[in-house]
Design a protein that fits this description.
The protein has three helices and four strands, in the order ααββαββ. It is mainly alpha-helical. The chain has two domains: about 90 residues, Non-ribosomal Peptide Synthetase Peptidyl Carrier Protein, Chain A (Orthogonal Bundle); about 30 residues, no CATH class. The strands form two sheets. Strands 1-2 form a two-stranded antiparallel ribbon. A hairpin with a 2-residue loop joins β1 and β2. The chain binds zinc ion (ZN). Zinc ion binds next to loops.
C-alpha cells in the first residue's frame, strides 16, 4: 500500500503536476493582482471612474456582486491566454530541435567501375583503378 503510494508519488509526471499546480497557484496570484490592482482600475477609469470590485446590484435584498464576477472572468481569460502562449512556445521548442545538419555523403562512385566506394578512397577497392 505505502510502496504503491510511493511509486505513484515518485512517478515523474506526478511531481511535474505538483510543480505545475504550485507554480500555477503562485502565478494565479500574480495574474489576480495584475487584474485587480492594475487592469481593473484602468478599465474602471476608462469607463468613467467605475470600481468594478464594488459593482453590485441588489435583487430582492440580495447583493449580486457582478463586478467581482467580471474580474474573475478576466482573470481566467488572462491565465488561459498566458498558458496557451506558454504551451505554444513549449511545443515549438519540442518540434524544432535544430534540423540535423545534412549528412555528408560517406561514399562516392568510382568513375571506372561505378561501384560505391569510400569518399576518402584514392584507389578503388573493386577495380583497383587509381582515383584522383
Ligand atoms: Zn572501381
Amino acid at each position: 500500500m505505502f510502496k504503491e503510494f510511493k511509486e505513484f508519488i515518485m512517478r515523474g509526471n506526478v511531481l511535474d503536476m505538483a510543480i505545475g499546480v504550485i507554480i500555477g497557484g503562485a502565478f494565479g496570484k500574480i495574474v489576480g493582482s495584475l487584474v485587480n490592482d492594475i487592469l481593473m482600475p484602468l478599465v474602471g477609469l476608462a469607463l468613467g471612474g467605475v470600481n468594478f470590485s464594488e459593482q453590485a446590484s441588489t435583487v430582492n435584498g440580495v447583493d449580486i456582486h457582478w463586478g467581482l464576477f467580471i474580474q474573475t472572468v478576466i482573470d481566467f481569460l488572462i491565465i488561459a491566454f498566458v498558458i496557451f502562449v506558454i504551451i505554444k512556445a513549449a511545443n515549438n521548442m519540442k518540434k524544432a530541435p535544430a534540423p540535423a545538419p545534412a549528412a555528408e555523403p560517406a561514399t562516392k562512385e568510382c568513375p571506372h567501375c561505378f561501384s560505391a566506394i569510400s569518399i576518402k578512397a584514392t584507389r578503388c577497392p573493386n577495380c583497383t583503378s587509381e582515383l584522383k
